[in-house]
Amino acid sequence: MAIASRLRARGVLSRCESSNLRSLLWPFLNRGFSSSSIPFHLERVGFIGLGNMGFHMASNLITAGYKITVHDINYDALKKFSDKGIPTKETPCEVAESSDVIITMLPSSSNVLDVYTGQNGLLHCRSHLSPWLFIDSSTIDPQTSRILSTNISKCLLKEKKGFADNPLMLDAPVSGGVPAAEAGTLTFMVGGLEEAYLAAKPLFLSMGKQTIYCGSSGNGAAAKICNNLAMAVSMLGVSEAFVLGQHLGITASTLTKIFNSSSARCWSSYNPVPGVMEGVPSSRNYDGGFASKLMERSVSSAPLLLKHVIFTWNCVRRAMTLRTSPVSSAIFTPVRMRAR
After folding, report:
1. How would residue 272 be classed by pLDDT, with cut points 50, 70 and 90?
2. Neighbours of 172 (CB within 10 A)
3. What range(s) does the 6-phosphogluconate dehydrogenase NADP-binding domain occupy (predicted)?
């Protein structure tokens, strides 16, 4: 039965007009449908950024059977892997040379740009890249993701892998924090070519429990910033409510019961007060987790993105008035405004 099913599947595949779909599905048909099989174009994974999140994400990929090579500027972080026999490299470029896929998990846009385009960066040998897919799970601004994606798509591959003629990039930030990274239950918000997203899904599901395709390049990063903005607002509200309630004579444990069984319940209501609940950051002396400075950086980018949206909309509206294209209006409207 299994053989017959596979032959029928190959028959359907041979009649499929899409060469991309054929290349995408063939590894699974050729190896069978076992969940333990790793597609050949995902076997070798380079992981860069072994901090609070990256350490656990890379560890889960190792557990899932991927061949991992790692890099970090922190020697102690690298030693945790080298002690286990995992290959480590001194530069991002060296990681790229031995990888089919690259995953980066870094603190900021400037760190991402440095790792990709800096000296000995991932794109150092841009005319002959080994990885066919680059996945950035950092929380950065969408424009940086889109610029990087465009630059990567202009590079050439040493050899064709999977369905890609040129290297591709997915922006795939995560939600769930360090506990979810450790447990392998992260949620991935992914932007980029949908075919690349589908091909990379086994990787995501080795580190998380849910993947959400958000659309074109940069949309994953945009979704993450929107998510962080909403979470920051709820965390501030919950924290202020706990301070007020305790000053009014209500214990933190009582407020926790009320919040978690009423309309105030939200992800942030797990508890910001030490000693009330086990396993949450406040009861671990706030050790690890998503640093406040990173949240501040993420949230501060939201107004900049809003300004970009308003500017774009004003250009489009102006273009409609002048009966010109949005592109030409975007170029000339600021000039006209300054001339006035």
Report:
1. confident
2. 32
3. 44-215
156-199 residue pLDDT tens:
998 887 677 899 999 999 998 888 999 999 999 999 999 999 99
Least reliable range by pLDDT among 70-74, 79-83, 319-323: 319-323
**What pTM did the predictor assign?**
0.74
Per-residue DSSP letter, 41? G
**Position 255: which residue type?**
L
154, 158, 201, 224: the catalytic one is: 224
3-state helix, strand, coil in the chain (%, to 5): 55, 15, 35
Structure-token pair, residue 327 = 């592109």
What would the DSSP string read from start to end of 213-279? EEESTTHHHHHHHHHHHHHHHHHHHHHHHHHHHHHTT--HHHHHHHHTTSTT--GGGG-SSTTSSTT
Measured CA to CA, the distance from residue 86 to residue 80 in angstroms comes to 9
84 as an active site residue: the answer is no
127: DSSP letter: T
